[in-house]
Amino acid sequence: MSEAAGFGGRSGGGQLEERVDCSVETNAKLPQAQQLAQAGQLSEALALLSALEKKCRVHNDTASLVRVCESSLQLCHDHEPDDDTNETLIATLQTLSTRRSQKTAAIKALIHTALPWCVQVPYTPVPVTSHSSEQQKRDKLVVALLEITEGKIFLERERAQLTRALATIKEEAGDVAAAADTLQDVHVETFGSLSKREKVEFILEQLRLTLAKQDYVRAHIVAGKISRKQLHEENMEEYKIQFYTLLTLYHRRHAKDAFELAKDYHAIYSTPIPNSSSSSAAAATTTTKTTTTTAKMETEEPAVAAAPKVVQTEETIIQAFQATIVFVALSPYGNEQQDMMHRIQVDPNLEKVPASFKSVIDLFLKQEIIQYPMPRQYEELEQIPEFIQDDLGPTVWHDLLHRRIIQHNIRVVSKYYKQIRLDRLAQLLQLDAGRVEQEVSSMVSDGGIYAKMDRPQRIIRFLAPKSPEQVLSEWALDIEKVLHLVETTSHLINKENMTAQKSL
After folding, report:
1. What value does the mean pLDDT take over residues 216-225?
2. 242-276 pLDDT, tens per residue?
3. For the residues of 81-109, what is the DSSP string, one character each?
4. Which pLDDT score is estimated for 29?
5. Contacts of 284 (CB under 8 A, 6+ apart)
6. pLDDT for 137-157, tens place per residue?
7. What's the rounded Cα separation, in Å, for the pair 248 and 261?
8. Sign of torsion, CA 420 425 427 429?
9. Counting beta carbons within 10 angstroms of the beta carbon of residue 31, is it exposed (0 to 12), middle (13 to 18) or buried (19 or more)?
10. Residues in Cβ contact with 117 at an 8 Å cutoff, skipping those fewer than 6 apart
11. Using an 8 Å Cβ cutoff, are 165 and 179 in contact?
12. 369 to 405, 447, 474: CA distances (angstroms)
């Protein structure tokens, strides 16, 4: 035996421990254990292998140790009595994995041997034909394997698989809250053995179940774990669409933020999947629970149901674009909102949507009063699925759209009038005076406009008073202009005099 083969571990003094080859004995006893198990003497077979396992472990014969551990589990799985709900298998698994100085390779072999009996690659639980014994066996084995993988870095991938499978089992049983709590226990973003795509897929599942649980605070935290930069990388289109589809549910149900919804739908719209065949090939390696359209997930109340693989078509792209237009019109006035409107205005796909959607952008960008209702507002704008199929109800968005139009009209009036009577402003906006006063007060409080209201005189003044510094600066600028004009005039007069004298 060479020196490399004779030593296989380290002793307490730092020296390599001697390795003894147990392969001959292993080859002889494995068939004996198999024969005992087939004869109905499973306990005797496991006792034989237990003694052999200890010998291989003490003598540092890792290859033989792995074979013995795998054979022990296989015998339990193949010859366990029908009335035994995996008790022998689980007991053997726990005993072998918690042996003193157990080898890492042996523990990995135990997990890899038992994993296919309860989990299909990559995350799907093994289907069962009944809801009694077989289901109990599967569920107990998943829990037992999870306990073994806890805290072991070399089993991170397997722990992620088992956690997803257990969450799926609980979700299928109707306990969505328990499924979400199960996934929350795993901080997959810290796992180094998982690829970027696997991490994103796992976090998306966490986000989906957290939204289904209606834990919106934690959903916001989970959403922050996904880097937007990663979603813009190549071959991440399906995950990007699924992520922003889930965000639409958060911003709609909890935040109720129209501008964030507009950004979500615009991100979905700007992410076409160019090649369906390549997408299906990528999906074959990782099973994802995504949506076909954003409207499908929004109709699920209150849970967020899993959906098949993303299929981005011309119809879904235009549908997301229409939703972007409607919700950017519902957004509060600001620099970002105006920037998005200008980008939409020059988008070539604007010609593919109905004319009423194009007119929304044009009307809100013009410094003119918008007549309410807008063209085909009730027939087209308020009939898109994202507008009417909502937890908040269509009347909420309908009222908000009316308010945005009123605020736009007040901003337009404030640019053309220094002051105006309240009754005249109400006439221009086709509203009663009380509603106009309420909206002006709200816009002043939000900092959208400057206005002073003289209630006894019923006059609104939009011209902001100037500070002394502003008055002085304007006076200095006017003086500078006058002096420049005088100097230019004097120069022209002297030029004319010189020309006249020369001609004489």
Report:
1. 94
2. 999 999 999 988 888 999 999 999 999 998 765 54
3. -TTS-SHHHHHHHHHHHTSTT--HHHHHH
4. 94
5. none
6. 899 999 999 999 999 999 999
7. 6
8. positive
9. exposed
10. 77, 126, 138, 141
11. no
12. 9, 20, 31
